[in-house]
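We keep the chain:
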Amino acid sequence: MASSFEQLKREAVQLERQLEEKVSRYQQLAQRLNAAAATNDLSMTEQGSSNAPSWDEETSLQQEIQRLLNHLQDLIQGRLAQAARSPSQQAVVGRYRDIMMDLRSDLEKSQQTVRRAAERRELLQGSSAAAVQSGNDPAMDHLLRERNHIQNSMNAAGSVLGQAEAVRTDLRYQGRSLRTTQGLIGQITGNVPGLNNLIENIRRRRSRDDMIVAGVIAVCIVFTLYYMFG
């Protein structure tokens, strides 16, 4: 049963690494799509530049992440939880549940960023078409200038939010590392009572051996004194 748990744990570790790599890629892609939509850079998102973010790539990557998350969830709640017997193994299962929740939360936040980027792209496309139709309309020119000011403010706010999200992601990864360390410490702590029992048994046996040796020496001394003075 222990070997079965270790095999399932290794599978969970592989899924965790794949998900961390893909979620990180998705976060970067979401930020690039958001930046492209904020600047109304349609050539980046639609004309297929080699370095451009792609909406098709976003869809396929999101589907792959969802598939891996479902696989990890089935593994944790099914086979891994059933194979966990000791408290340390149950702690490992709990840690992977926390990791899965963190990864799902990161994905949902990036999905929100992608949705905002899609809405912004549609809005800017509509305003660009209106600008072409307006010609030299002063009112429309004023509205477009206002839109540019708002867009610049949104870009600045988006940059700050992007930096905050990057810091938050780093903190999450550090938290996962700390939980991994905590799990290892828990496993060592779970084995400590066995070590303590072994040390106590060794100490008792040594004390018993010392008493036997002392008794033999005392008997020898008594017989020697009896032989010399008896």
